[in-house]
């Protein structure tokens, strides 16, 4: 991402009329200290002289007018003085509450360094300490014991046209650290930060939500400072009714909003997605986002190894939400590419979990997602299917994926066995955090004698074999879900279809550095994510139009115009000129009433 200031004050003559246009000045009805308290409109020391006069800011700010770049320099020095990762995370949270443009610009200019601070793993620590670090609420807190208020609580955040993107969690399975109850709101907040950073989703048009259903985390239940419902987690019909009440309220209040489910428990995530996906534009990052970026890495690897998707054999080690989500995406892509049925495509995938290879005889012990990938017992009669190595020996897969959180499970024997049968084995240890990875890329590279094509779930340095360097790509969902969301939002698609997801995967894979140099990463680096998101959004929009799902009018037909149309609507961290308007004539945005940094309107 460029650190250069981008001033674009004149209206775009072609697309400046759009609701989400980012060119031209912004209206603002706030003045004085009220303006300085609006995190979205506040410019702090960067308010120019004319705006200090028009908005009655003289005497409220030091006299020297600074640039955004000056502010970033000072903020980075302050950030760097914090002694540990959690302190840095807390500092950034405080900055976001004061000045959103400066917050996003600081991260944008130091994305590689700060990504682990604003997201995993540090955000996980912040979530675990939510009730102890709590200073100011952010987002919408919905309570399962107060279901009659759900619609009114959601209605505080705007009118039907005001919200584009909603992230909701029930806090049950957060970032590999389990049930965090009401603290899960911070994963909704963090995901929306990434949609803004990576795809230009407008911050005041987003809404983070937590469905507080209680918690089974004994530590939280016994913590006198815990802010959520201090009761065991509610399940069954009451839980389903709560989720449905939320979804129905979203549809009623914000019919054009895109709904992103995040970190729901294993028993609910798939079921909820399958239930609502046929009716609304919705997405689950743990299932579909992980699947998309992993499939993009696989497609790039297959290109390097000159193998067709329809010929590939895949073993997934760890068949929970993420593993089955990947299997689903791969199966759907095989079906779309080859014309095979989904059942036939699933026969190219072998899923292994704690009991070993998933077999149909496991019956009710299989989850809804695992069922389609369970193999016939008769095919494995007399064969060892309890260990990963035994399955590898029998299947001879081209691709091995790890989502098991079982460290060092990709042993030397496993990697050597794969390398015996495949010229360029694709090995993806994806478990997070780093300590839970199935294997270190350095070892995989050594054991495969430099043959393996590797991507991981966390950042790793390049590896070397016989004097040759190989880059290790990170399968970071942030190169997938923001662009998918942007495309769905801009097209106002009625649904997010399988074909739209496959189009997104192809767009990501097309940006793979490995296509030009096999020693480079299988998927593009997160540092290039805004440009990647443009291409992903373009592919998603075109597919939505082709399927008749897009409802937005005036979507350009040719690629060049479509890219300009997309870029014009991507929010970026820069100070736009402010024009003072009267309260009575101002929009809710101009009055500072939109977004979590504004003042929500009163409930009915």
TrEMBL record:
Cofactor: Mn(2+)
Composition bias type Basic and acidic residues, residue spans: 582-592
Highest taxon of source: Eukaryota
Ranges where the Malic enzyme N-terminal domain occurs: 96-277
Positions of the Malic enzyme NAD-binding domain: 287-545
Family indicated by similarity: Belongs to the malic enzymes family.
Entry protein name: Malic enzyme
Region Disordered: start-end pairs: 582-604
InterPro entries, per database record: Aminoacid_DH-like_N_sf, Malic_enzyme_CS, Malic_N_dom, Malic_N_dom_sf, Malic_NAD-bd, Malic_OxRdtase, NAD(P)-bd_dom_sf
Cross-referenced Pfam families: malic, Malic_M
Keywords of the record: Metal-binding, NAD, Oxidoreductase
PROSITE patterns per UniProt: MALIC_ENZYMES (PS00331)
């Amino acid at each position: 991402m460029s650190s250069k200031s981008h001033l674009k004050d004149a209206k775009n003559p072609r697309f400046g009329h759009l609701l989400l246009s980012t060119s031209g000045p912004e209206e603002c009805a706030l003045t004085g200290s009220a303006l300085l308290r609006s995190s979205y409109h506040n410019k702090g020391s960067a308010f120019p002289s004319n705006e200090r006069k028009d908005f009655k800011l003289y005497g409220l700010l030091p006299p020297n007018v600074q640039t955004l770049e000056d502010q970033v320099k000072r903020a980075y020095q302050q950030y760097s003085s914090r002694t540990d990762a959690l302190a840095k995370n807390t500092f950034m949270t405080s900055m976001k509450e004061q000045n959103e443009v400066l917050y996003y610009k600081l991260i944008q200019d130091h994305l590689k360094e700060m990504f682990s601070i604003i997201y995993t793993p540090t955000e996980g620590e912040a979530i675990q300490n939510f009730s102890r670090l709590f200073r100011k609420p952010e987002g919408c807190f919905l309570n399962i014991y107060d279901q009659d208020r759900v619609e009114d609580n959601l209605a505080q955040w705007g009118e039907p046209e005001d919200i584009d993107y909603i992230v909701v969690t029930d806090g049950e399975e957060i970032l590999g650290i389990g049930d965090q109850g009401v603290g899960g709101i911070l994963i909704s907040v963090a995901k929306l930060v990434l949609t803004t950073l990576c795809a230009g989703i407008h911050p005041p048009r987003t809404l983070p939500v937590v469905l507080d259903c209680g918690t089974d985390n004994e530590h939280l239940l016994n913590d006198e400072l815990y802010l959520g419902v201090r009761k065991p987690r509610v399940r069954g019909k009451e839980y389903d009714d709560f989720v449905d009440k939320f979804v129905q309220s979203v549809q009623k209040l914000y019919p054009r909003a895109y709904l992103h489910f995040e970190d729901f428990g294993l028993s609910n995530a798939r079921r909820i997605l399958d239930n609502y996906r046929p009716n609304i534009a919705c997405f689950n990052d743990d299932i579909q986002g992980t699947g998309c970026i992993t499939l993009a890495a696989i497609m790039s690897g297959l290109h390097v190894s000159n193998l067709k998707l329809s010929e590939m054999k895949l073993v997934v080690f760890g068949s929970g939400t993420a593993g089955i989500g990947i299997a689903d995406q791969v199966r759907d892509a095989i079906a779309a590419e080859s014309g095979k049925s989904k059942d036939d495509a699933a026969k190219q995938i072998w899923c292994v979990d704690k009991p070993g290879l998933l077999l149909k005889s496991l019956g009710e012990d299989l989850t809804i997602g695992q069922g389609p990938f369970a193999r016939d017992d008769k095919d494995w009669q007399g064969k060892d299917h309890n260990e990963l190595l035994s399955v590898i020996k029998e299947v001879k897969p081209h691709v091995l994926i790890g989502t098991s959180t079982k460290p060092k499970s990709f042993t030397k024997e496993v990697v050597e066995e794969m390398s015996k049968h495949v010229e360029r084995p694709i090995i993806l240890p994806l478990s997070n955090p780093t300590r839970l990875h199935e294997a270190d890329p350095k070892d995989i590279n050594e054991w495969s004698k430099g043959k393996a094509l590797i991507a991981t779930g966390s950042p790793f340095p390049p590896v070397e074999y016989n004097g040759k360097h190989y880059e290790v790509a990170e399968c970071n969902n942030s190169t997938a879900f923001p662009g998918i969301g942007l495309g769905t939002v801009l097209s106002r698609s009625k649904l997010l279809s399988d074909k739209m997801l496959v189009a997104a995967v192809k767009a990501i894979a097309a940006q793979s550095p490995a296509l030009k140099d096999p020693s480079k990463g299988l998927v593009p680096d997160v540092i290039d994510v805004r440009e990647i998101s443009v291409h992903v959004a373009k592919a998603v929009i075109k597919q939505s139009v082709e399927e008749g799902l897009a409802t937005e009018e005036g979507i350009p037909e040719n690629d060049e115009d479509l890219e300009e149309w997309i870029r014009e609507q991507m929010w970026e961290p820069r100070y736009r000129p402010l024009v003072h308007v009267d309260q009575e004539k101002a929009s809710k945005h101009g009055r500072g009433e939109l977004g979590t940094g504004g003042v929500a309107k009163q409930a009915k």
